[in-house]
Amino acid sequence: MANVAFLGLGVMGGPMAGHLARAGHTVTVYNRTGAKALAWVAEHGHRAAPTPAEAAADADFVMMCVGNDHDVREVAGAAIPAMAAGSVLIDHTTASAGVARELAAACAAADLGFVDAPVSGGQAGAENGQLTIMCGADDPAVFDSVSPVIDAYAKQITLMGAAGAGQTTKMCNQIAIAGMAQGVAEAINFAQKAGLDIDRLVGAVTQGAANSWYLEHRGRTMAAGEFDFGFAIAWMRKDLAICLEEAERIGARLPVTGLVDQFYAQLIERGHPRWDTSSLIDLLQNP
């Protein structure tokens, strides 16, 4: 068992930290809104710290799950100077590959390990301890030391390469999701216009080559116009902006991703930043 710190207790971080506590690790949590950290302690026990530095000071492993590159730099900048030599910083935030490489260099200079480890699986995956974790680490031995700890909330952990490779893999994940979300939205809308039974449609198509997580888990809710759950459009646009920026840097074309990003922008303009990403169908049903 290890002493761990978890920085950021949102819809993902809170459940992830809870799994660490249930696995028997000693957990210290930090959240920008202190009341959320105290509420986590009231539910799970252990300890809350008022600053990232105090949370990280005695930890063997420091996990972060915050909002964006700015938040990562701010929280990690406070935690790294307080971390003990030989401890490891693990960033679960979906952020840029560039910031992952920055953190890797900062940690190496402080005799710390670093792993960028963005996750996929959404809030349900975090709550059920069934996240897919994509990792980048300059030292495979550091990854090996981290894996048994983050296994508390993972169904799969993969080392993809050096620092930044985890974030680049998460970009691939979001690029694929953007295309699938639009494809499923068009298929469901088409089926409704054609008068097909949606429940039968999903049951039939998921048994063939067009099956996907998105069709299985969002096809029926798309048809019902239910979007008040899941991964918010505003967060997806943050992720897609990272993808589009990296694509420009490396010379990769993302025409469908760019188009879907603009569709999400339209939904935000309509006042729905918190709707699930499956709400793309609303633009087809209500043009």
If you had to describe this structure to a student in words, what would you say it looks like?
- This protein has 287 residues and is of the alpha/beta class.
- It folds into 2 domains: 3-161, 3-Layer(aba) Sandwich (Rossmann fold); 168-285, N-(1-d-carboxylethyl)-l-norvaline Dehydrogenase, domain 2 (Orthogonal Bundle), CATH 1.10.1040.
- Helices cover 54% and strands 14% of the residues.
- The strands form 2 sheets. The protein has a 6-stranded parallel beta sheet, with helices on both faces. Strands 7-8-9 form a 3-stranded mixed beta sheet.
- α7 (140-150) links the parallel β8 (131-136) and β9.
- α8 (165-194) crosses α11 and α9 packs antiparallel against α10 (213-224).
- The mean pLDDT is 97.
Write the layout of secondary structure elements.
Layout: E1 3-7, H1 13-22, E2 26-30, H2 34-44, E3 47-48, H3 52-56, E4 61-64, H4 69-79, E5 88-91, H5 97-109, E6 113-116, E7 119-120, H6 122-128, E8 131-136, H7 140-150, E9 154-161, H8 165-194, H9 198-205, H10 213-224, H11 233-250, H12 255-269, H13 281-285
Parallel strand pairs: 1-2, 1-4, 2-3, 4-5, 5-6, 8-9
Antiparallel strand pairs: 7-8
